[in-house]
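Problem: given the chain below (181 residues), write out its structure.
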Amino acid sequence: MSDATTATNAAATPVSMDAKPGTEVALVGAGCFWGVEHIFAEQPGILDAVSGYSGGHVDNPTYKQICTDTTGHAEVVKVSFDPAKISYEQVIDVFFRLHDPTQINRQGPDIGTQYRSVVYYYNEEQRAAAERVKLKFGPRFKRPIATAVEPAKKFYTAEDYHQNYYVKTGKEPYCHILRDE
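Solution.
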């Protein structure tokens, strides 16, 4: 977790949004963060994928708190990537392929605002790229895309047991599947 601070107590820890030189950062929510993190971690050009929380009004939220659906946070993944190997637009393309962006406040059996589909952008270029990719994917679905594209908010790293969940537990990923283009 390179520049991500790991939670040492029950609460999540805030993380700086500054990318290291030669890297960029994307922040996305697509349901349960375990599958999102796992799929991104396996993509060429991705340097790091960290599960966490963003978009809410409570400082240092815990997983237990966000599951009450009262903090406003979404489960998100902070994706650090090498723009010489994968562009921001390609990262967002992967995001739209790994979940159902037409679902509102849910993915599969997971229901609640913390499972919403959202792209948090850090600058105008990211906003425009996210909107372009969203438009590109629109015709691929029978229902309208519900993914929100919003300015980035403070990111909090999720508790240690959420990081690299599938690798740590040896379980097969089950909450997300990367669809072909």
